[in-house]
Amino acid sequence: MITYQDAALPKFGDYSTLGLGTPGEIVVVAGQMGADANGEFTTSSGAEQVKIAYDNLGVALAAASLGFEHVIGFRTYVVGREMIPEFMKGRKEKFPEIYPSGVYPPNTLLIIGGLVEEAALVEIEALAVRPAAAS
What is the pTM of this model? Predict the structure, then answer.
């Protein structure tokens, strides 16, 4: 079981400052970008790339028999400071679907000069915990 809470820390967006997972197997999902299954970037919209990146994370989590409820944290890379509002917009549109409770995992946001694919505006990694098997 994953629980989120806020420590007495400043917040700069929609995320929890602390994620707690019960003992289990750690699952790391490599950074996902806003490309389709063929590796094509079908949009130059930052917000749309953010939503596609979360969709891709969902595919990876499902392949490990997990869902977003198992994620204990995200690390997000955006290209340029001007991408921050686009990231926030895409996340605000996507999170109600994947986190209907309105409680979100911790997220670290980094501003970078570019990603491995020039068309990419965002890359998001996930860290999840598979619950320990019941004995």
Answer: 0.86
